[in-house]
């Protein structure tokens, strides 16, 4: 009886090992997808913060928003794990990533109206969303990769995530290249960041949860949304620089 169980276990292991590592539900693809989510949301947030003052000449509003952000982040960084257990990965990612879009939108509003109240509220909500997102990311990164590949998969995630800050830095560079005077970045810069963040929260965090298509098709849809939006933003930025 024990020998039969061992044979069945060996057969199941053999079957699992023959499956493609690039299938939608494989650890490699799932880690890559969470990397793309963080590329679009916290990665772009890092690029936005890297401009100094969120791209504003007067950094008072963003300084106050960051205070609110990390205050709520401290609380929901602890509560995020429990919320993840209730909502699951898709809804947790969608809720967390949507706050990044709101924050970029608040800076767009501030660029026009110069009222910092909305920016501070958006910063506080972003702290909540960041707690949810990173709780979900931690759960995925510690449970999905096989034990002998955790280091490789973690390095893959961080490489994809940090490319968000690198590529995101090109948005203000392209859209503000010909500006000679010190001034806040233009509205198109914030719209570009919002497009990427929307792709992360809607295109990957929520569309992939729909059951109207196969998982493989949903994966292609999410990645295609990011690729198309990115191409449109770069093309629009380059066209904006033409005389």
From TrEMBL:
According to Swiss-Prot or TrEMBL, what is its membrane topology?
A: Multi-pass membrane protein
Q: Does the keyword Ubl conjugation apply?
A: no
Location in the cell: Membrane
Q: From the record, give the transmembrane residue ranges.
A: 28-48, 68-86, 93-110, 116-135, 156-177, 189-208, 220-239
The record's GO CC annotations read: membrane
State the UniProt keywords alphabetically. Answer: Membrane, Transmembrane, Transmembrane helix
Which coarse location class describes where this protein primarily resides? membrane
- PANTHER family, alphabetized: ET TRANSLATION PRODUCT-RELATED, UNC93-LIKE PROTEIN C922.05C
What name has this protein been given in UniProt? Major facilitator superfamily (MFS) profile domain-containing protein
User: Where does this protein come from, organism-wise?
Assistant: Gossypium barbadense
List the taxonomic lineage. Eukaryota, Viridiplantae, Streptophyta, Embryophyta, Tracheophyta
